[in-house]
Structure formats: C-alpha cells, structure tokens
Amino acid sequence: MFGVLLIVTLVVSTGAALGYLGRLTLVFDRHPGKPLAILEEVAGPPDGPNCSIDARYFDEDPDGLRPDVLQAWLSLRAKASEQGVKLCLNDGKRSRGQQQKEFDEAVERFGSEELAKQYVLPPDKSMHVLGLAVDIQPIESAKWVEKNGSTLGWCRRYENEQWHFEYDANYSTGGCPPMLPRAPGT
Ligand SMILES: [Zn+2]
After folding, report:
1. Which helix (H) or strand (E) holds 122?
2. Contact assessment for residue 157 and residue 164, using Cβ atoms and an 8 Å cutoff
3. How far is CA 40 from CA 68, 95, 98, in A?
4. Mind listing the pLDDT tens digit for each residue in 38-88?
C-alpha cells in the first residue's frame, strides 16, 4: 500500500509539474485506488531498433507493460530463443495519449470515427493501453507464439491480427478462448 501511495504521490507531483494535474485527477476519480488507471498514462517506446531478422519491423524495449505481463513476455521470449526462434516486439505498451493520437490520425485519414474504428481502436478499447498486449513480428515468429504461447499465458485473440497477442494467467491453465473475428488496430 505504501508503494502505491508513493507512486501516486510521485505521479501527481510530476503531473502537477507538467500541468497535467486536472487530467490525472479525473483518472483517479474514475478508478479510485487502481494502479491500472495510472498505467494507462504510461507511454511505451514509439519505436525501437530494427528487428534483427526482419528490418521491416521494430524490436522495442518492453517498457511500460504491466509487471506480470513483462515477466510473462520475458519468459515467452526465452522459451522461443531456446528453440531458435527470435521474437521481435514490434509494438507493446501505448499510453492513452499515444493510442488517441493514432485514432485521431485514422479519423483524419478515413474521414469519420465510424470508419476509423475499423482500423484503429480508441484508447478505452485497446489492450495495449492497459499494458496487456504485444504485437509480435515477423509473422513466422508470431506463428510460433500461436502454437507455443498459451502454456505461458499468451493467446492470439483476433482472426484479422496474426501478430497481436494478449496475456492472461488463466490462459496457461484453461487454454486460449475462441478467437474473435476482428479487432482492428489493436
Ligand atoms: Zn496489437
């Protein structure tokens, strides 16, 4: 509890210093006492070094993932590595702001929110904002995760996104839930 209070204090002071206090207070009001609400404000790296096996993709640092998700990601990558498979983290954590920016750009590009939602999720719908999702590339590596990831809690969730995986400790015992047809831009 002290740790959480300390973090809250730090975030609030930092937020005040940056002039963001109003926004942070709003977040606390909506989710009283939940550290996840703070995590939503944490940005991930915008990109990273190129993926060493396919330069079309990035291999970001896993910064900002929820702590248990970060551990699970490191375990997954180690297991893949043991089997000679390299997993590149093309995209992991995003803040609400980062996701909102992507959404706003899509609205601009496609002309309406309705159309934009087919390609990019708004911040309140994205598991990347909650620090629970990773986009793994190249596709060959993603296929390995689809086959081997569930025992470590990683499941592919959407038929239209072969690269997108979400972590839930329950998946490691109960297996993956049925895949959903599409969740654009998650
Ligand atoms: Zn994704």
Report:
1. none
2. yes
3. 15, 5, 10
4. 667 777 887 789 999 999 999 999 999 999 999 999 999 999 999 999 999
Going from the Cα of 121 to the center of ligand 1, the distance in angstroms, rounded, reads 10
**Amino acid (one-letter) located at 161:** E
Domains of the chain: residue spans and CATH: 2-39 (no CATH), 50-174 (3.30.1380.10)
β-partners of residue 91 are: 135
The pLDDT of residue 42: 78
How remote is the CA of residue 5 from the centroid of ligand 1, in Å?
31
CA 174 to chain CA centroid, Å, is: 22
Residue 125: pLDDT band with limits 50, 70, 90: confident
